[in-house]
C-alpha cells in the first residue's frame, strides 16, 4: 500500500491519530496543520509534514479533520482549496461534525470535479484514533467507499455504511453528539447531586457504573473528576459547537430538543467560567460551584 498517497489536513488529537494510523498501515501519508509543532511531531514519526511535495494530483485520498463546516469548506474550496487540484477519482473523507445539508452541498461540489466525497464523521476519541480503532459513520456512493477503503481499514475498527447519500453520516453523528453531550452534562449533575447527599465521587462511580443509570460517558469521564485531572482529552469548547449544530438541525426540522438546549446552556456557563479549554468532565465544576461543594483536587 506504500503507493497509496494520503493527505491528512488537521493534526489535532483526532487527526494526528488518524495520520499516525495511516502511516502505520504503510500508506504514504502527509500531515498538514496550521500548528508547525503538530507537523513536526508527525514528521518525527516518519510522515511527511505539510502538503504532498509531489503535488495534489498524485493524492489518492484527502482526510479532513478540522473543527467545523467553515474550515472544511475553506480546505476544500477556499483560495487554496485542494479539490480543484485533485485528480479525478480521488476521494475526500470528511470527518468534521457538520449539518447533513453541508455534507450534501460539498459532495455535489466535489462531484463537479470528478472527486468522490465520503461523509465520514468519526467517534472514539484521541486514544482510539491513535490505535486505528475509530468508529466511522460513513455515507456515500459505493465508488467513494471503494476509493477510501485503504484509509478506512487503517483508521477504523468499525465502519458503519449508512447508505449512498452524503448527509446520512452527519445525521447519525448529530444523534450521537446529542446523546454524548447530554450524557456528560448529566453525569456532572448526578455526581454533584450525590455529593450533596454524602455520596463521594469514587463511590458514585463504583456503584452507578454497575447499575442501570450508567453510560459510556459516565464511566469514561467520571474518573477525570475523581482524579481532579482536567487535561483535555475532549474540550468543553467542543460542545457549544456540536450541540449548536444539533439544535440548528432540529430547528430546520421543526423538532423541539429541550434537553439538548439545557445541556448546551450548561456548557456555555462552563465556557463563561473560563473552563473552555479543559476536559469536558469539567462541566461538573458548574454544578459544584452552584452547590457550594468542593470537587477532588480542590479545584471547583
What's the gyration radius in Å? 20 Å
Assign a percent range to the helix content. 40-55%
Which geometry do the CA atoms define? globular
> Which CATH class of the largest domain is shown?
Alpha Beta
Q: How many distinct folded domains?
A: 2
The helix tally amounts to 12
Uncertain ranges? none
- For CATH, the homologous superfamily of the largest domain is named as NAD(P)-binding Rossmann-like Domain
Number of strands: 9
The oligomeric state is single chain
CATH architecture type of the largest domain: 3-Layer(aba) Sandwich
Task: Indicate the CATH topology of the largest domain.
Answer: Rossmann fold
The profile of the biggest β sheet is: 6 strands, parallel
Structure summary:
The chain has twelve helices and nine strands.
What do these coordinates show?
51% of the residues lie in helices and 12% in strands. It contains twelve helices and nine strands. The protein has helices at 13-24, 36-44, 69-77, 100-111, 125-131, 142-155, 168-196, 201-208, 216-227, 238-253, 258-272, 283-291; strands at residues 5-9, 28-32, 48-49, 61-64, 91-94, 116-119, 122-123, 134-138, 156-161. A six-stranded parallel sheet has the order 3-2-1-4-5-6, with helices on both faces. A three-stranded mixed sheet has the order 7-8-9. β8 (134-138), α6 (142-155) and β9 form a beta-alpha-beta unit. The protein is globular and about 65 Å long. The chain starts with a strand and ends in a 9-residue tail after the last helix.
Amino acid at each position: 500500500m506504500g503507493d497509496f498517497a494520503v493527505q491528512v489536513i488537521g493534526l489535532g488529537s483526532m487527526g494526528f491519530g488518524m495520520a499516525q494510523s495511516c502511516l502505520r498501515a504503510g500508506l504514504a501519508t502527509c500531515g498538514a496543520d496550521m500548528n508547525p509543532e503538530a507537523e513536526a511531531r508527525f514528521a518525527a514519526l516518519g510522515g511527511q509534514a505539510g502538503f504532498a511535495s509531489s503535488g495534489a494530483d498524485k493524492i489518492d485520498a484527502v482526510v479532513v479533520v478540522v473543527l467545523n463546516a467553515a474550515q472544511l469548506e475553506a480546505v476544500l474550496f477556499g483560495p487554496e482549496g485542494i479539490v480543484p487540484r485533485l485528480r479525478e477519482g480521488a476521494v475526500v473523507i470528511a470527518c468534521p461534525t457538520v449539518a447533513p445539508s453541508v455534507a450534501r452541498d460539498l459532495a455535489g461540489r466535489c462531484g463537479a470535479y470528478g472527486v468522490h466525497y465520503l461523509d465520514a464523521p468519526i467517534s472514539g476519541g484521541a486514544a482510539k484514533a491513535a490505535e486505528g480503532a475509530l468508529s466511522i459513520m460513513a455515507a456515500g456512493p459505493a465508488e467513494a467507499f471503494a476509493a477510501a477503503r485503504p484509509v478506512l481499514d487503517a483508521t477504523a475498527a468499525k465502519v458503519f455504511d449508512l447508505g449512498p447519500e452524503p448527509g446520512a453520516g452527519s445525521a447519525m453523528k448529530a444523534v450521537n453528539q446529542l446523546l454524548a453531550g447530554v450524557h456528560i452534562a448529566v453525569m456532572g449533575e448526578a455526581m454533584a447531586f450525590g455529593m450533596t447527599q454524602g455520596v463521594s465521587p469514587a463511590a458514585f462511580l463504583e456503584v452507578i457504573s454497575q447499575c442501570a443509570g450508567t453510560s459510556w460517558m459516565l464511566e469514561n469521564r467520571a474518573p477525570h473528576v475523581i482524579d481532579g485531572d482536567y487535561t483535555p482529552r475532549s474540550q468543553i469548547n467542543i460542545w457549544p459547537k456540536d450541540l449548536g449544530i444539533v439544535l440548528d438541525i432540529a430547528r430546520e426540522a421543526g423538532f423541539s430538543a429541550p434537553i439538548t438546549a439545557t445541556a448546551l446552556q450548561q456548557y456555555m456557563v462552563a465556557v463563561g467560567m473560563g473552563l473552555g479549554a479543559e476536559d469536558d468532565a469539567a462541566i461538573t465544576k458548574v454544578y459544584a460551584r452552584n452547590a457550594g461543594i468542593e470537587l477532588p483536587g480542590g479545584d471547583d
